[in-house]
Design goal:
The chain has about 400 residues and is an alpha/beta fold. The protein folds into two domains: about 140 residues, Aspartate Aminotransferase, domain 1 (Alpha-Beta Complex); about 240 residues, Type I PLP-dependent aspartate aminotransferase-like (Major domain) (Aspartate Aminotransferase, domain 2). Helices cover about 40% and strands about 15% of the residues. It contains twelve helices and 15 strands. Strands 2-8-7-6-5-3-4 form a seven-stranded mixed beta sheet, sandwiched between helices. A four-stranded antiparallel beta sheet has the order 11-12-15-14. Strands 1-13 form a two-stranded parallel sheet. Strand 11 and strand 12 form a beta hairpin. The longest helix is centred in the last third of the chain and has 28 residues. Bound molecules: D-malate. The site of D-malate has 7 residues, from loops. D-malate (MLT) binds next to loops.
Length: about 400
C-alpha cells in the first residue's frame, strides 16, 4: 500500500506494558508447564460478581428474551436509570453535587481515558511519571508532546503543580496506579487552584476511590472549584469486579468550557458518533452495584483485596523492603531489593518464585528500580505467593 499511516505510532514502545508482561509470562508457562505461576501483575480481579449484581443481570437477561421488554441500541450516554443512579451515588455517598446529564456511561475507564483526547487540542500535557500508561500512549498516538512531572520518594509519589501558569491538560490518578499514593484534600486543592489560575483542565482518574478507608478525597469534585476545571473518570472494574463485564463512567460538569467550547457537549457529540452504549444487561448490573445491598457486597469484595494487600505489606515489613501503597489502594509499590532494576526483578521473581508482578519502569522512567504487586489474587494464591517471597527475598 502507499497510504499514509499515523506515524505517531513510532513514538510508542513496541508493546503495551501489560501485553509485554503477559507475553513473558506465557513464554515462561510454555517452558515450565509443571510450575504453578501466580499473577500479582495486571490488576485483574479474581472474585466473582456480587450476588445482588448477578440477580440484576439475570433479570435483565430474562427481559431481553421477552418481546415487550426486549431492548435494542442503548442510549449512547447510558439509560436514564443508570445516569440517575450514579449522580445519586455522588450526592448521597460522596457528598458531591453531580446531575445525571453530567454522567456519561461507558465501557470502562481505559476507553474513556484513551478517547478523551478526541475533544482536546494541542496543549501542554502534564503526566506524572510513573503512572498508568494509557495517559501517555493515547497522547503520543495523536502526536501530542508530553511533559512529565516526576513522582518520587521525596514527594511521596504525589507531584505538586509547576511554578508557572501555562494552560495545560493535567492527568491525575488518586489513589494512584501504580504507587498507591493518595492525595489529601490540600494536595488536590493545590492542583485545582493551579488549574483555575492557569486555565488548565484536570483529567482525574478515580478508578480506585472505593479502596479509600481513611479521610481522603474520593472525588476531585469534593474540592471547591473543581467543577470549573476537571473531568472525572471512574470504572466499576476494581470497585465491583467488572474487569470482564465492562462498565465505567465519565463525569463532565455541565458548564465546563474553554472559550466558546463546552466540553460536556463536545463529549456528548463524540460519544454519539463513535459509541453505541453499554449493553442493557450490564447497565442493570451497574445499577445494582450502587443499590444499598450492592454497595455493601462490593465493599466486602474490596475489603477482601485490601486484606490481601495487608498480607503482602506485612511480608515486606518483615523483610525490611521499602514500599508505599497497600492501604487505601490495591497496589503495593516497592523498591526492588538488592539493587535489582525493575525488569531483572521481574525475571527474578518469575524464575525463582513463579510470581508475576509489574516492573515499575513500565509505568515511566521514574519507576526504574521499583516494582508493583497487586492484591487482586485469591486469598489462597496471595498466601502462597507471600510464602514463596518469604523464601527468596
Ligand atoms: C493495571 O493493572 O494497571 C490495571 O488493571 C490496568 C487497567 O485497569 O487497565
Amino acid at each position: 500500500m502507499k497510504i499514509k499511516v499515523n506515524e505517531n505510532f513510532d513514538n510508542l514502545k513496541p508493546s503495551y506494558l501489560f501485553s509485554e508482561t503477559a507475553q513473558r509470562a506465557r513464554k515462561y508457562r510454555a517452558e515450565h508447564p509443571d510450575q504453578k505461576v501466580i499473577s500479582l501483575g495486571i490488576g485483574d480481579v479474581t472474585q466473582p460478581l456480587a450476588p445482588t449484581v448477578i440477580k440484576a443481570m439475570q433479570k435483565a437477561v430474562q427481559e431481553m428474551g421477552v418481546k415487550e421488554t426486549f431492548r435494542g441500541y442503548a442510549p449512547e450516554y447510558g439509560y436514564d436509570f443508570i445516569r440517575e443512579t450514579i449522580a445519586n451515588y455522588y450526592v448521597n455517598n460522596l457528598g458531591v453535587k453531580v446531575t445525571p446529564q453530567e454522567v456519561f456511561v461507558g465501557d470502562g475507564a481505559k476507553s474513556d481515558l484513551g478517547n478523551i483526547v478526541d475533544i482536546l487540542g494541542d496543549n501542554r500535557i502534564l503526566i506524572p511519571n510513573p503512572v498508568y500508561p494509557v495517559y501517555m500512549d493515547s497522547n503520543l498516538m495523536c502526536g501530542r508532546k508530553v511533559t512529565l512531572i516526576e513522582a518520587n520518594a521525596e514527594n511521596d509519589f504525589l507531584p505538586m503543580p509547576p511554578n508557572d501558569d501555562i494552560p495545560s491538560v493535567i492527568y491525575l490518578c488518586s489513589p494512584n496506579n501504580p504507587t498507591g499514593a493518595v492525595y489529601t484534600k490540600e494536595g488536590l486543592k493545590a492542583w485545582v487552584d493551579y488549574a483555575i489560575k492557569s486555565g488548565s483542565l484536570i483529567i482525574f482518574d478515580s478508578a480506585y476511590e472505593s479502596y479509600i478507608r481513611e479521610d481522603l478525597p474520593h472525588s476531585i469534585f469534593a474540592i471547591e472549584g473543581a467543577k470549573q476545571c476537571a473531568i472525572e473518570i471512574n470504572s466499576l472494574s476494581k470497585m465491583a469486579g467488572f474487569t470482564g463485564t465492562r462498565m465505567g463512567y465519565t463525569v463532565i460538569p455541565a458548564d465546563l468550557s474553554s472559550g466558546k467550547y463546552n466540553l460536556n457537549k463536545m463529549w456528548a457529540r463524540r460519544q454519539a458518533t463513535k459509541f453505541n452504549g453499554v449493553p442493557y444487561v450490564v447497565q442493570r448490573a451497574g445499577e445494582a452495584v450502587f443499590s444499598e445491598q450492592g454497595l455493601k457486597e462490593c465493599k466486602e469484595l474490596v475489603n477482601y483485596y485490601l486484606e490481601n494487600a495487608k498480607l503482602i505489606a506485612e511480608l515486606l515489613d518483615k523483610k525490611g523492603i521499602w514500599y508505599t501503597g497497600g492501604v487505601n489502594s490495591p497496589y503495593i509499590w516497592l523498591k526492588c531489593p538488592n539493587g535489582f532494576d525493575s525488569w531483572s526483578f521481574f525475571d527474578y521473581l518469575l524464575e525463582k518464585a513463579q510470581i508475576i508482578g509489574t516492573p515499575g519502569v513500565g509505568f515511566g522512567t521514574a519507576g526504574e528500580g521499583y516494582f508493583r504487586l497487586t492484591s487482586f489474587g485469591s486469598r489462597e494464591n496471595t498466601l502462597e505467593a507471600v510464602e514463596r517471597l518469604d523464601k527468596i527475598l
